[in-house]
Amino acid sequence: DIVMTQSPDSLAVSLGERATINCKSSPSVLYSSNNKNYLAWYQQKPGQPPKLLISWASTRESGVPDRFSGSGSGTDFTLTISSLQAEDVAVYFCLQYYSPPYTFGQGTKLEI
Amino acid sequence: QVQLVQSGAEVKKPGASVKVSCKASGYTFTGYYMHWVRQAPGQGLEWMGRINPNSGGTNYAQRFQGRVTMTRDTSISTAYMEMSRLRSDDTAVYYCARDRGSSSSLSLYYFDYWGQGTLVTVSS
Q1: DSSP 3-state assignment of A79?
Q2: A22-41 per-position pLDDT tens digit
Q3: CA 20 to 30 Å from B21, out of A85, A97, B51, B91?
């Protein structure tokens, strides 16, 4: 199984500041034949299902604010929130869909 | 708009079975794989398996093989997840989640729409 490891487990950031969450896969989730990274990011607020933010490591979902961005390739990925808003308080998960079983990172709790 | 509406919370005794439903609307049900994911209290997300609503074909995570059965009823656009021989550590919120890719595609995709979740509590 592909192991997804997020860091940090929790993070406190001031309003308006940048938040950075990391996700490492072992092994790589880059498919060489199409040069795509099979990595997505989700946001989950208490009592709600996860919400898709980013797919293919860096493609922002329609309707997701542009302060959210994804980067990275191969085994190392980053979710960045450029200017933290109060409504961004949540747990963030990465997901690999390169190979079943699909696996998630353990989550990063983002607080203000 | 795409909606996935799941059945209500369940309380079961150890050793019993539970069947959770997921009714889809706003898209062609047979056109997209449906996945099931669970989340134990305060824990992360765990993929359980997926079903192709068109063919009925399934893929299960190895740890759930033999204990989970995923089915569908295309006449009412509903997917089901049944788990048997429940244990206390099966207490979790169970989600259905739609695959972004087509059910006729061999490629793998992420999950775009999720149900609201169904809490299954296993307790004696």
Answers
A1: strand
A2: 999 999 999 999 999 999 99
A3: A97
